[in-house]
Amino acid sequence: MTNGTHRDVLLLERLIEHLQYAHADVSQFKDSEALARSRRDQNSASKEIELAQECAKELSKNTINRFPSVRWKELRGLRNVIVHEYGELDWDVLYDTVMIDFPPMIETLKKVQQE
Asked: Would you call 84 helix, strand, or coil by DSSP?
């Protein structure tokens, strides 16, 4: 991402790191029920997702428009995906999102980072 602003370069780097950390936290569990029993890892994964969302929200429109293949809307709405009414986390949705959606998303973002 040679034409991006310095701020966007840093935000993208942090976004990738937060997604990777969330994946590392969640991937050590065989399913969402096991994750739901570990308060420390729940908190860590959900915080990483929140921080990833914040990074995605702060990226400039120019960067977002340059890479239409990235699912920016989903990245910017991560918290909304995993939280339902009254602020309760849906561990099944969080687990599936992190385990299924994050790996290809991370790879796509790494490619964007190199452009």
From this structure: strand
